[in-house]
Amino acid sequence: MLIVIALGGNALLERGQRPDAAIQRRHVRRAARALAPLAAEHRLVICHGNGPQVGVLALESQSDASLSRPYPLDVLTAQTQGMIGYWLVQELTAAGVDRPVAALVTQTVVDDRDPAFHTPTKFIGPDYSREEAAALAARYRWSVAADGPRWRRVVPSPEPGRVVELDTVRTLIDRDTIVVCGGGGGAPVAADASGRLSGVDAVVDKDLTAAYLALALGAHRLLVLTDVPGVIRGYGTPQAEPIRAIDVDELTRLRFPAGSMGPKVEACQRFARASGHPAAIGALADAADVLAGRAGTTITRAPRRPGGRPAHSSPASTGPNQAAHLLEDPLWTR
Ligand code: ADP
Ligand code: MG
């Protein structure tokens, strides 16, 4: 199978942990060990997050007195693609993956009139107390929001359009290469009137970019691996209860927070709905079990036509890209 994996930035740097390189590399090593068994059997595209990491770089840039202005987030996202991609390439190989692994710096086209520019939702950087967050917001003119009980900086997160380097990704997959791409959602770029692309100050959600990649590449599965065991109904309440399997339509009726579980659920819905293949959300450590449906939350689309073909074809099938029609949709073709 071709599997697109969305790998959580928060699973590579736990909340409250020092962002030291050695600590992050240890997490990447653990991630690589969890992914190596999948790499032995399947073709993989890995799309990592960068919320904690891009936040570290943004803080450094903001406090660098030699700069006349901090580096924009598209540039910092490209930097995190290099850093995390480099770690993943090394650690996947060290974990016994015996195929080439390549990390690509990729760009994601966004609409610079996306309403998301007026309502920041994407959490970046460390968490703070409410008072600390308010002080930083005043000092650096940040937007801040509650991420669970703690507060974090939030930045605009426009919808991903297309991934500029899609054909290169395809070429590498066809050459049996594991591809790390779309990191941090991809460096966001917008086209001017003449079609020229240039960077914008935002961070795209990598879960949505992963859904785009999964559909555009005709993947058989989308796996969203993070720091919780799956989707929880009534999260944070005494009635909290894990969801093992759910139909896309039923999932639509539930509500999830923007900037964390919201985009994961949305990504899985888009993929399952358009492709008919299952998507799953679960803990990084359980990667193989999440793929097998033994752990995490599996999201499926019920068969559409009574007596028709099942909702998802056999895992081994490599038919035409069922999602091709979706790429005509304005959401993906901006
Ligand atoms: P990642 O870096 O993997 O993208 P996020 O922080 O964006 O991680 O999303 C995962 C977080 O979503 C979890 O750590 C959890 O705190 C939060 N979350 C919010 N609602 C839910 C829910 N209903 N079920 C599970 N986790 C949830
Ligand atoms: Mg996230």
TrEMBL record:
Q: Where is the signal peptide?
A: none
Q: Name the UniProt key words of this record, in alphabetical order.
A: Kinase, Transferase
One Gene Ontology molecular-function label: kinase activity
Q: Which residues form the Aspartate/glutamate/uridylate kinase domain?
A: 1-281
Q: Which Gene3D superfamilies match?
A: Acetylglutamate kinase-like
**Is Cell division given among the entry's keywords?**
no
TM region(s), chain numbering: none
**Superkingdom of the organism of origin:** Bacteria
User: Which InterPro entries does the UniProt record give?
Assistant: AceGlu_kinase-like_sf (IPR036393), Asp/Glu/Uridylate_kinase (IPR001048), Carb_kinase (IPR003964)
Task: Give the start-end ranges of region Disordered.
Answer: 298-334
Offer one Pfam family short name for this entry: AA_kinase
Q: Which family does it belong to?
A: Belongs to the carbamate kinase family.
Protein name as catalogued: Carbamate kinase
Q: Which organism is it from?
A: Dactylosporangium salmoneum
